[in-house]
Amino acid sequence: MSPGASADWLAGPAGSAVAILALALVTYLCRASGVVLMSRVRLTPRVERALRALPGSIVVATALPTGLSAGLPGLAGLAAAAAVMALTRFELAAVAAGLATVALGRALGL
Amino acid sequence: MTSTAAPFTRAGILRGVRLSLPIWPSIAVFGAAYGAAAAQRGLSLAEATAMSAFVYAGASQMVTLEVWGRPWTLSALLAAMTVTALINARMILMGATIQPWMRGSPPWRTALSLFVLVDASWLIGVRHRAEGGNDLGVLVGAGAGLWPLWVLSTAGGHFAGALVSEPRVYALDMIMPVFFAAMLAPLWRGVRPALPWLVSGAVALVVQHVVPGYGFIAAGALAGLVTGALVDDGAAR
Q1: Rounded distance, CA A53 to CA B222, Å?
Q2: What range does the domain containing A65 cover?
Q3: Which of A16, A22, A87, B28 is deepest in the core (most CB within 10 A)?
Q4: Residues of chain B contacting residue A7, judged by C-beta atoms under 8 Å apart
């Protein structure tokens, strides 16, 4: 199948609907495959330890590079959010502090 | 290790909704930002809200706008699917972390529950479990409660498109990383269990600079997973 010619129907009104369903399917497969995969793994102490390390690892791997690519304001925002959360345990305050820090840093041209 | 399934109660569902309330404003703002960005990119109201309703994964929806087909071709579709899979690959790992919790539950309920698995509900569920809870209703309630909010705020943002034309000024592009950073505090269990996080962050940064795209999230998280398997975290279990 050559991408352009054989898929002319994608360019029509149905194209977006097909695309949205395809993206929904890809996302659902991501949601489900970890669960299916793990149901075939025996829960040894080593596996449990690895799974315990995973949530924080996902959080850091997602937030740190994205924050750093936003420069100094980004990094300061992440630090502010983590600090406020540690002190107050209130998500809204933490997110507000983080975003306010980023916005302020950008307004100051840092 | 018990062989009985974790409970799934109405009280748990309500608790999940309640635990998600503090982040409703951020999700609504993020949803509105998505709707506004989608409008600027030329998506119709129906397309934007359908994306939020069926895909229900903010970061990947946002980035998919960059490769949205006008008109759609097979190669544009494949590009969009690849970007979506890469950004949502973290959900594979999230699923792995909650699978032991779902062991023994009816498969149909697990399948439905997974449709509403999002970053926020996963974090709320993980936290609930770390604090000794075991009710799967909390995980599902948090995700299901956020769904109508996400869809409605997308529609609202699409209408209000022009209002949020400068999301960077209000730092709205940073909502997801900021929210994730905030979630580190409740997950903190001391320095030793955090060693894999450090490895994860270092690997993610390196991969981000070497490999273009969004593979860095999965690469970092996998490095953390392996570190966790290899290094004793000192937990008394």
Answers
A1: 10
A2: 55-110
A3: A16
A4: 72-74, 77
pLDDT tens, per residue, chain A with 110 residues? 444 445 677 887 789 999 999 999 999 999 999 999 999 888 788 888 888 888 889 889 888 998 888 899 999 999 999 999 999 988 778 888 998 999 999 999 87
**Which has the minimum average pLDDT: B31-35, B49-53, B92-96, B232-236?**
B232-236
Angstroms from B226 CA to nearest CA on chain A: 6
| Nearest residue, CB atoms, B221 vs list A32, A38, A54 | A54
The enclosing H or E element of B8 equals: none
Which chain B residues contact residue A40 at CB under 8 A? Answer: none
C-alpha span between B93 and B109 (Å, rounded): 20
* Number of domains chain A contains: 1
pTM recorded for the entire structure:
0.78
Q: Where on the phi/psi map is residue B117: left (φ > 0), alpha (ψ -120 to 50), or beta?
A: beta
Read off the pLDDT of residues B161-180 as tens digits, 9 standing for 90 and up.
756 566 677 777 787 788 77
Q: From CA B226, how far away is CA B219, in angstroms rounded?
A: 11
Q: Is residue A80 part of a domain?
A: yes
Using the beta-carbon criterion (under 8 Å), do B74 and A10 form an inter-chain contact? yes
Is A60 inside a domain boundary?
Answer: yes
CA distances to A33, B25, B69 from B175, in Å: 27, 11, 26
